[in-house]
Amino acid sequence: MTKKGLLDNANWVYHQADQLGKFEGDNNRRPSGIQVKALTDVMNGLGWNAGIRKPSKSLDPNAWWCDNDHTNLPEILQSLANNFHTDQQIGQLFNVARDAAGQIPCKDFPDNPFYRYQVNNQSPYRVRCCMPGCYHRLSRTAIVHWIATLVEDEVIDGEKFGGRNER
Ligand SMILES: [Zn+2]
């Protein structure tokens, strides 16, 4: 499968979630399991099986909402770290997570929406908080750790998963 094909596949997963609109108004489910599952599916769409769990059957629209298994931070982190380590891989992981969450909040001011990471350097890959006076930076390893934390902490909002499809 070509790289473009993999990205198209990931976009397709986003598109399905967006079209279904299943996240809206569904507050009865545990979101963390949904988000991990959705992230797993997106990563699988990009051609990485992160090993967090088996990907959903992507044609099954109910798959993400039927699985409420708990996944903890060490498990998420280890899976991500095992699968994302090159500049390019971590860059794509960052893009997928950012699109899913809307933005990646700054680790120093995680509750302030004006503090968010942007790509600062491609090689070695690095992101930097956009806010002058902060400019907090994350290296590759720190990016993976922070994204895993955001998934575990449910900052990556299930309602926003699939809502953006810009690539
Ligand atoms: Zn910052």
Helicity range of the residues? 40-55%
The share of residues in extended strands comes to: 5-15%
Envelope shape: globular
**Tally of strands:** 3
Small molecules held by this entry: zinc ion
| Average of the residue pLDDT scores | 70
Q: Can you count the helices?
A: 6
Q: Structural class of the helix and strand makeup? A: mainly alpha
| H/E element order | HHHHHEEEH
Rounded to an integer in angstroms, the radius of gyration calculated over CA atoms is 15 Å
User: Which stretches are low in confidence, meaning pLDDT under 50 for 5 or more residues running?
Assistant: 19-31, 57-70, 157-167
Numbering strands along the chain, what is their spatial order in the largest sheet? 1-2-3
Give an overview of the whole structure.
The protein is mainly alpha-helical. It has a domain at 3-102. It contains six helices and three strands. It has helices at residues 3-20, 31-45, 63-66, 73-83, 87-101, 140-152, and strands spanning 117-122, 125-129, 137-138. It has a three-stranded antiparallel sheet. Strand 2 and strand 3 form a beta hairpin. The longest helix has 18 residues, at 3-20. It is globular and about 35 Å long. The chain starts with a helix and ends in a 15-residue tail after the last helix. Mean pLDDT is 70; it is low at 19-31, 57-70 and 157-167. Zinc ion binds at residues 106, 108-109, 115, 129, 131, 134, 136. Zinc ion is lined by residues 106, 108-109, 115, 129, 131, 134, 136.
Structure, briefly:
The protein is mainly alpha-helical.
Defining traits:
167 residues; 3-stranded antiparallel sheet; 6 helices; 3 strands; disordered C terminus; binds zinc ion
